[in-house]
């Protein structure tokens, strides 16, 4: 599984830093929704789902956390702690977020509006879904 991290351009000067994110330029899809997770309690993990269509960029704008990504074949853990870095999470990737520092703000840019029907929340259903998904796509499509 390929980990895709975007490194955004910080516009820094003596006043501090500013990062601007534009759809289809800095972000590889049209941004239809933004949400953020903060005030996360000690020891909690979140996520535990995949999506059928939705793609995301995760930006840890403050603090730190870890993201476990799972494509049904292998798992990788990606630490996020830089406000100028975005982790791309494709659809059909199971994701779990954990190890939040108390000050973490995790911002998520999403390619779709909130739609519960797009979620796969059961891990066995996810494994079944990716198996069928891979069979119905060409290798080139799957690697995107
Ligand atoms: P949940 O899916 O449990 O979050 P996580 O992926 O971090 O585990 O979402 C928490 C609640 O927020 C749940 O009641 C659904 C709601 N929610 C929205 O209303 N809109 C959204 O865009 C998102 C992501 C969640």
- Poorly predicted tracts of residues: none
Nearest-angstrom radius of gyration?
Answer: 16 Å
Mean pLDDT over the full residue set: 94
- Count every helix, treating DSSP H or I runs of 4 or more residues as helices: 2
Hetero groups:
thymidine-5'-diphosphate
Q: How many beta-strand segments?
A: 10
Largest sheet: 5 strands, antiparallel
Q: What is the straight-line distance between the termini?
A: 11 Å
Shape: globular
Helical content stands at 10-25%
What order do the strands of the largest sheet run in, or round the barrel if closed? 1-7-4-9-2
Strand content: 35-45%
Structural class determined from secondary elements: mainly beta
Description of the molecule:
This protein has 144 residues and is mostly beta strands. 22% of the residues are buried. The model has no long low-confidence stretch (mean pLDDT 94). The strands form 2 sheets. A 5-stranded antiparallel beta sheet has the order 1-7-4-9-2, with no helix packed on it. The longest helix has 14 residues, at 123-136. The radius of gyration is 16 Å and the shape is globular. It contains 2 helices and 10 strands, in the order E-E-E-E-E-E-E-E-E-E-H-H. The site of thymidine-5'-diphosphate has 6 residues, from strand 2 and strand 3. Thymidine-5'-diphosphate (TYD) binds at residues 33, 35, 37, 46-47, 114.
């Amino acid at each position: 599984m390929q980990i895709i991290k975007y490194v955004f351009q910080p516009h820094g000067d003596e006043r501090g830093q500013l990062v601007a994110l534009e759809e289809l330029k800095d972000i590889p899809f049209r941004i239809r929704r933004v949400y953020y997770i903060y005030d996360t309690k000690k020891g909690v993990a979140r996520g535990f789902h995949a999506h059928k269509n939705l793609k995301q960029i995760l930006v840890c704008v403050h603090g730190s956390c870890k993201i476990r990504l799972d494509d049904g074949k292998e798992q990788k853990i990606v630490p996020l702690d830089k406000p100028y870095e975005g982790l791309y999470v494709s659809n059909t990737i199971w994701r779990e977020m954990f190890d939040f520092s108390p000050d973490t703000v995790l911002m998520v840019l999403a390619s779709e509006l909130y739609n519960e029907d797009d979620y796969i929340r059961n891990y066995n259903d996810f494994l079944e879904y990716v198996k069928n998904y891979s069979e119905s796509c060409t290798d080139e499509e799957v690697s995107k």
